[in-house]
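Quick review question:
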């Protein structure tokens, strides 16, 4: 039996932080008003107390579908609210295009096999970075721009080795640190920052590794610029991309990891596939994958030209 005590994780101060003031202000100002609640940047609504706040406001002011809207990135049902889902795949397809439209599909040969571009130092990004850095540093482009690892102190004893490694070996900077955590698309995905023509495979660690509701520029850019990828995201992320008409890279890349719902086992499977690909002739493999890369670019452009 595993006992999960959320009171120890989501401290009381955390769960009510700002809520009292927010509800007071909304109750003060909300009479005879309509409400629009916005969620951006991949916030997983169910993992916050936002639904309880929204439900409270709906009940307090007798809101209906006509007077309450929730704009978010995920499928969710809130009674008496109109939920407007802004699908992340089409969102990023359109938002990225002006920055990446002049990047050509690489032709090879490639000097490096792998690349990983990480800014915020999350746990899964640290694990992938450590794996590449300790085993394949000479054949990889690696960027991990923050020092250490974002962690919850109550878990530190279970991840002591990872945290110590992160403190001793990061940041790992390929070109330059994002100044003041201020970004534009050129800094994040521009060719002036990343040598797309010099590595074969990108290993992506998504922002959301629990669901497939928030697939970001980290993955989406590769569909246009012609870069094969392995992605640590929510289980089924490749299946979702294929539902938009894109193709992925099986059987040349073992993508069985996408069906693994256990995050520990999915991450281990990704590391094993990295190890296998480290011994593969990547320039030959790239030629085999070229029709898929061209198909994905064509599919991407169709979304742009159709205005979807």
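Suggested answer, residue by residue:
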């Amino acid at each position: 039996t595993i006992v999960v005590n959320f009171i120890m994780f989501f401290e009381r101060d955390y769960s009510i932080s700002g809520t009292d003031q927010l509800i007071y202000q909304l109750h003060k100002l909300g009479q005879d008003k309509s409400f629009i609640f916005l969620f951006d940047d991949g916030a997983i609504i169910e993992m916050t107390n936002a639904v309880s706040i929204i439900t409270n406001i709906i009940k307090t002011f007798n809101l209906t579908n006509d007077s309450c809207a929730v704009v978010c990135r995920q499928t969710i049902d809130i009674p008496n609210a109109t939920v407007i889902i802004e699908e992340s795949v089409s969102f990023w397809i359109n938002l990225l295009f002006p920055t990446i439209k002049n990047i050509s599909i690489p032709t090879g040969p490639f000097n490096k096999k792998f690349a990983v571009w990480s800014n915020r130092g999350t746990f899964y990004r640290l694990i992938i970075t450590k794996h590449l850095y300790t085993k394949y540093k000479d054949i990889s482009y690696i960027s991990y721009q923050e020092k250490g690892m974002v962690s919850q102190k109550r878990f530190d004893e279970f991840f002591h080795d990872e945290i110590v490694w992160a403190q001793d070996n990061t940041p790992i900077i390929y070109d330059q640190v994002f100044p003041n955590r201020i970004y534009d698309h050129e800094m994040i995905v521009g060719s002036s920052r990343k040598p797309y023509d010099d590595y074969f495979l990108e290993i992506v660690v998504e922002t959301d590794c629990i669901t497939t509701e928030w697939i970001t520029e980290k993955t989406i850019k590769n569909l246009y610029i012609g870069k094969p990828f392995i992605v640590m995201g929510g289980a089924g992320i490749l299946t979702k991309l294929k539902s938009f008409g894109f193709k992925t890279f099986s059987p040349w890349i073992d993508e069985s990891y996408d069906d693994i719902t256990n995050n520990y086992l999915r991450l281990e499977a990704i590391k094993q596939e990295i190890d296998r690909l480290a011994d593969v002739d990547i320039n030959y493999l790239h030629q085999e994958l070229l029709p898929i890369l061209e198909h994905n670019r064509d599919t991407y452009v169709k979304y742009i030209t159709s205005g979807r």
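Why it works: Residues 282-306 form the longest helix (25 residues). The mean pLDDT is 91.
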